[in-house]
Amino acid sequence: MASGGKASKVTVEVAGRSLTLSNLDKVLYPEAGFTKGEVIDYYAAVAETLLPHLEDRPLTRKRWPDGTGSGSFFEKNKPRGTPDWVRTTFMPEHGDDGVDYVVAESLATLVWLANLAALELHVPQWRVDDAGEPLPADLLVIDLDPGPPADIIDCCNVALAMRQLLEADGLAAFPKTSGNKGAQLYVPVEPTSSQRTSAYAKQLADQLAAALPDLVLSTMDRAARKGKVFVDWSQNNAAKTTVAPYSLRGIERPTVSTPLTWEEVAEATEAADLRFEAADVVRRIDELGDLLADMPSSTAPLP
């Protein structure tokens, strides 16, 4: 889908929609020389795998119009000029005046967003129904955030311990990298309130912090973070979002929030083992499929 030649604009057909793409040669990841055209190609390549994880979830985007070496901004409201075929959902209770979110449900929407340099896609742990009304949470997320010199390998050790606690409660956990320094566990749950998922996640975080005090922190005490993994249970708050699986990250190189096997979590010995860029993830999908595909069938009630 990337451009040939130096044309700054090109019109393409994507899944029956006409899209004008611009500045495809613009480098958005300076360290890697990775262009906007390559960002669009990546999102097109993973769309079939990514879209089920965005389905019916109001989308917060983080955009880097001039590339990751320059400024970025979070965008919740649909941007000016949003095509009329893009699904949106208005949440009157969000912010002072409500928020009109984009809901990504098609390849064309993903390509349109990538053309806006929306590198990062963030979603809540709940969905909306066909009328745009918010539904209860269907995911619990455990966000593992390492305080240097701790790294993703320390997160893996915490993830393995957390998995045992979850499995003892009859819950299945699915690991992924954050695409930056940390990791996350997704736990599919029977629909319940965000207050309940938050309270349960906090209970687990406190339990692990008590059992592994040298490694785990369950409070947001910045001063105590050094060398420990902060288990951020607060990501389950209905107002919070987490970077979506298969989303790019807006850092030096085009790394991706990448689903992992539990074998990879257990066997990784250095952070580089779990650092995946766009091309790696396209290859992984070809070889492994979607490692999160079993989430809907693994749903269980919170204890």
Anisotropy-based shape: globular
Provide the helix percentage: 25-40%
For the record, the CATH architecture of the largest domain stands as 2-Layer Sandwich
* Number of beta strands: 16
Number of helices: 6
CATH topology of the largest domain: the name is: Alpha-Beta Plaits
Proportion in β-strands: 25-35%
Oligomeric status: single chain
Low-confidence stretches: none
- Report the sheet with the most strands, covering strand number, pairing sense and barrel closure: 6 strands, mixed
**Structurally, how many domains make up the residues?**
2
Question: What does this entry look like structurally?
Answer:
This protein is α+β, with helices and mostly antiparallel strands and 303 residues long. The chain folds into 2 domains: 9-123, DNA primase, PRIM domain; 134-298, 2-Layer Sandwich (Alpha-Beta Plaits), CATH 3.30.70.3300. It is 26% helix and 25% strand. Strands 10, 11, 12, 13, 14 and 15 form a 6-stranded mixed beta sheet that branches. Strands 6-5-9-16 form a 4-stranded antiparallel beta sheet. Strands 1-2 form a two-stranded antiparallel sheet. Helix 1 (36-54) packs across helix 2 (107-115) and helix 1 crosses helix 6 (278-288). The longest helix has 19 residues, at 36-54. The termini are far apart.
Name some characteristics of this structure.
single chain; 303 residues; alpha+beta; DNA primase, PRIM domain; Alpha-Beta Plaits; 2 domains; six-stranded mixed beta sheet; four-stranded antiparallel beta sheet; 26% helix
